[in-house]
Amino acid sequence: MEKNEKQSVQNEHGSASSKKGKYPWIEYNGECLSDTEFCIEFLNDKRGIDLDRDFTVMERGTARAFQKMLEENTYWAFALDRWVYNVWAACKAMKVPSLAGYYVRRQVRNNTYAHGIGRHSSDEVYHIMELDLKALSDFLGNKKFLLGDKPCQADCSVFGIIGNAYWQSFGSPVESAVKKCRNLCDYCERMKQTFWPDWDECITHGHTKEATK
């Protein structure tokens, strides 16, 4: 997002997880880093990037709070929707083998139960998710990005999570809930057009020969 610069990277590790058992992770000049937050912090330091330099301390704190709400709460509701409640629709759309679907469903059930959100009924999970989406939508309002006319670092996470639900929920209640928040849909389209004008090319290579939606 800094000067809209893109750089291709090569995955030489397949689907292997990091030493912490976490995704995503990177290897940079032989140094391995796990978790999005540490990866971004490391790369920002290496490249001298600070997407938040023009924002106040209060704005930065608010953006981080919404980022963490999505990463630590809303994300898990989305995971339950895709891999537990609607797993076979997701497998069909994403061409995931049924055996892998069983494995992922079991893993997500275990992880969400440990998290806590998986102990609720599906109706309760969707209610929690809708409250999160409304809070984000209300805060975004008519702004172009999370904090105004310029994107901040939290926009990376917000777009990653909301965009995934917007384009990859295959007619589930998550898709319906996101599309009720018109400004979140517009936000996803705006991020896509601003930073990925070559979107279709980017999502149809490697193991994904054609877009799932």
TrEMBL record:
InterPro entries: FAX/IsoI-like, Glutathione-S-Trfase_C_sf, Glutathione_S-Trfase, Metaxin_GST, Mito_Protein_Transport_Metaxin, Thioredoxin-like_fold. GO terms for cellular component: cytoplasm. It holds the Pfam family GST_C_6. It comes from the Eukaryota. Residues 130-191 form the Metaxin glutathione S-transferase domain. Residues 15-86 form the Thioredoxin-like fold domain. PANTHER family: FAILED AXON CONNECTIONS-RELATED (PTHR12289:SF41), METAXIN RELATED (PTHR12289). Belongs to the FAX family. This is Uncharacterized protein. It comes from Mytilus galloprovincialis (Mediterranean mussel).
